[in-house]
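Example for tutorial group B:
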């Protein structure tokens, strides 16, 4: 089996001669760290971690608070052991440093393909949680979350409903010192 098929980026329509889709190196690297897991679960967790990192790095810096929140969410939501979560977060952060801008859409598209609507909405809450880990959701982080929600085909109403839970941390609504 080719790595493209393993990652779900096989040939469109699955037949010979069909046009191949783009491969996501970031998801593949993270999956390698999760090789003991069932492949579909590893793919899901790799994409989940990468997208969390996408928001954390939106302002070009991933803080310790954001890294810690990503690890906590991978343990809580992903069922990983803390040691695995640390490794996955480090891999996701490295992948963002190397490929961030070029991989963002590909990974989010893959997550959209493999996740249920409930999983997408849970990810949306996790994205706000990561960005609020330092008590402040910057405008650039908020915009990145909106972009991800759009790529995941989450309705504007669901986005606003999720966002409203984090109202007190939104920089645009906070008084500047």
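The residue assignment follows.
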């Amino acid at each position: 089996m080719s790595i493209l098929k393993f990652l779900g980026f096989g040939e469109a329509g699955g037949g010979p001669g069909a046009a191949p889709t783009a491969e996501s190196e970031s998801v593949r690297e993270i999956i390698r760290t999760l090789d003991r897991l069932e492949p579909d679960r590893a793919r899901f967790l790799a994409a989940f971690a990468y997208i969390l990192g996408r928001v954390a790095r939106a302002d070009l810096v991933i803080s310790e608070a954001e890294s810690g929140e990503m690890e906590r969410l991978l343990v809580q939501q992903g069922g990983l052991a803390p040691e695995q979560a640390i490794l996955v977060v480090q891999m996701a952060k490295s992948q963002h440093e190397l490929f961030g801008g070029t991989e963002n859409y590909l990974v989010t598209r893959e997550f959209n393909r493999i996740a249920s609507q409930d999983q997408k909405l849970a990810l949306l809450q996790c994205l706000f949680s990561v960005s609020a880990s330092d008590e402040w959701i910057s405008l650039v982080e908020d915009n990145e979350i909106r972009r991800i929600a759009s790529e995941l085909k989450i309705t504007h109403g669901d986005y606003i409903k999720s966002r409203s839970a984090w109202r007190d941390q939104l920089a645009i609504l906070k008084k500047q010192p």
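The chain has one domain: 23-170. Compare this with the pattern of hydrophobic and polar residues in the output above.
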